[in-house]
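Model the whole thing, not chain by chain.
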Amino acid sequence: MHRLPRSVGALQQDLRVGAKGLPGGGEHGFAPTSIEERRAEFRFELPYLLAQRCLGQMQVCGSTGEIALPSGFEEVFELVEFHRFFRPSSSESTVLPATRKLIQSSLMSRLCVHTITTKPLNFEQCLAEFPKRGVTGITIWRQALEGRDLATVKRQTADSGMEVVSLCRGGFFPSATSAGRQAAIDDNLKAIEQAHAIGAPLIVLVCGAVPGQSLVESRKQIADGIAAILPAAEQAGVKLAIEPLHPMYADDRSAVNTMRQSHEICDALGSPKSLGIAVDVYHVWWDPELKEQIDLAGLTGRLHAFHICDWKTPTTDLLNDRGLMGEGCINIREISDWVDATGFTGHREVEIFSNHWWGTDQHVFLDKIAASYARLYA
Ligand code: ZN
């Protein structure tokens, strides 16, 4: 049993001498970088559990001997930065890819971030910054594609090492006029082309609503709109996901407000395989039928996406005051476990609209996202 020292300085010393049981041992090809240099980048303290989990992974990487952390270990680095402590001692070393693989295959392997979550960052910054926090998936909002060559976007994303999880967003089918409904269909057909071009397997549909038009009529128009674009989606190999929105948006953003209503549209259209549901905890956490509707989505193969954030009390803006996981009252982990129990193994997508967080340093915000995600799933 090797017990880590409390202080960073002592840890650094251990790494330098390649203490037995630590990945700094020469046989694994690691060489420590300057901890002082790294510390300047750290903005978080790492909870004990995360440190332990992370070191456990390093053991799997090839270290021998057990490592335990003294309780109260609060110094140091967040999980996602841990691997950056170590770099190959030679260019031939396979250790760094192995370390990266471990991180991707374990705790952070299902972390996806939406480009809208870090709205102040441009697309290239998202591609550069997300992976540094262990993010393995990216959901691209269409705003990020404006003025860009889609083939280049596809290549850039592939180069970042992240998987494109979905394109956000299509939908907004209802309109008071047939010309408006046709314009929506045309826009959704364009979204399908965009998704295909960038290699996004899924489009999330925020279905739309028209103030003053009955919700029943809007839902009919939504079903008609989806029916009109389904053949193109299937031909392009792009799936569609209806995202039920919280009822507070029933006036102008979505007449589909529950999982049950989403299922009803899928049923009405003959349960096409390419049509499913995006479960966003922000919109459905309150629903007393949530667990059974998630179960049903699993049974019917309709669980296409899972979005997370939190509900703040008080919420000061209906659209743009969503919380970082842990800031609010949603039972995110419980809902997430229900989702996983259906056999869903897709990404957990962090989608946060927040004037507050958008007004802060996005690098710090990304650190907080990674840390809160790791805390949630540790
Ligand atoms: Zn969402």
